[in-house]
Write a structure and sequence with these properties.
The chain has about 200 residues and is mainly α. The chain has two domains: about 20-80, Helix Hairpins, CATH 1.10.287; about 85-199, Iron/manganese superoxide dismutase, C-terminal domain (minor pseudopilin epsh fold, 3-Layer(bab) Sandwich). Helices cover about 50% and strands about 10% of the residues. It has helices at about 20-45, 55-80, 95-105, 105-120, 165-170, 175-180, 185-195, and strands at about 125-130, 135-145, 155-160. The protein has a three-stranded antiparallel β-sheet. A hairpin with a 4-residue loop joins β1 (about 125-130) and β2 (about 135-145). α1 packs antiparallel against α2 and α4 runs antiparallel to α6 (about 175-180). The protein starts with 19 loop residues before the first helix and ends with a helix. The structure holds manganese (III) ion.
Length: about 200
């Protein structure tokens, strides 16, 4: 059984960037819904072991969608932090070094990820990922709830660009949501993920 992990902050802490209503709905309804449907699909999968292949494949689709939804949201909540607790500040360390090496500057990195997020057709995620084989970073998008690993990268940073992540506050202006979210990105957490990915 998978459970909804607690948020590492209070839902009122993101002030003008993400309203309490958005986070509450996103976390308590959307994320919780993926957890519930993932558990239901895993139970169904267990019971369907002797059924025909097409039935099993359809159940696997539910596991993939809801399991990806759960994992991606865990990463998303973790890679946010209120601005007054360090949101938006990239420390001087190995992450800054590799970002500058790959993109030229943090500003350019954010600009490329923003463009990728804005260009996702429909629902999906924008990512900064790390390739452990070649030791480099890449910005890319995935559709629906596909994992960063489907693009052969380990996830460092993710931005949810489903409409439920911003519509209550930003309406159809996804670009404004992505621009604003940079001020609450937890770069320390992302650096931790990089260090872990390099081991
Ligand atoms: Mn979401």
């Amino acid at each position: 059984m998978y459970t909804l992990p607690p948020l590492p902050y209070d839902i009122t802490e993101f002030g003008p960037v993400l309203s309490k209503e958005i986070i509450q709905l996103h976390y308590e309804k959307h994320h919780a819904g993926y957890v519930k449907k993932l558990n239901a699909a895993l139970e169904k999968k267990q019971a369907a072991q002797n059924q025909d292949l097409s039935t099993q494949i359809m159940i696997d689709e539910d596991v993939k969608f809801n399991g990806g939804g759960h994992l991606n949201h865990v990463l998303y909540w973790e890679n946010l932090i209120p601005q007054n607790k360090g949101g938006g500040s990239l420390p001087d360390g190995c992450l800054r070094q590799v970002i500058v090496k790959t993109f030229g500057s943090l500003e350019r990195c954010k600009q490329i990820i923003t463009e990728i997020c804005v260009s996702v057709h429909g629902s999906g995620w924008g990512w900064l990922g790390y390739c452990p084989n070649q030791g480099h970073l890449r910005a890319f998008a995935t559709e629906k709830h596909d994992l960063a690993q489907t693009q052969k990268f380990l996830p460092l940073l993710c931005i949810d660009v489903w409409e439920h992540a911003y519509y209550l506050q930003y309406k159809n202006d996804r670009a404004a949501y992505v621009q604003a979210i940079w001020s609450i990105i937890n770069w320390r957490k992302i650096e931790e993920r990089l260090i872990q990915a390099q081991q």
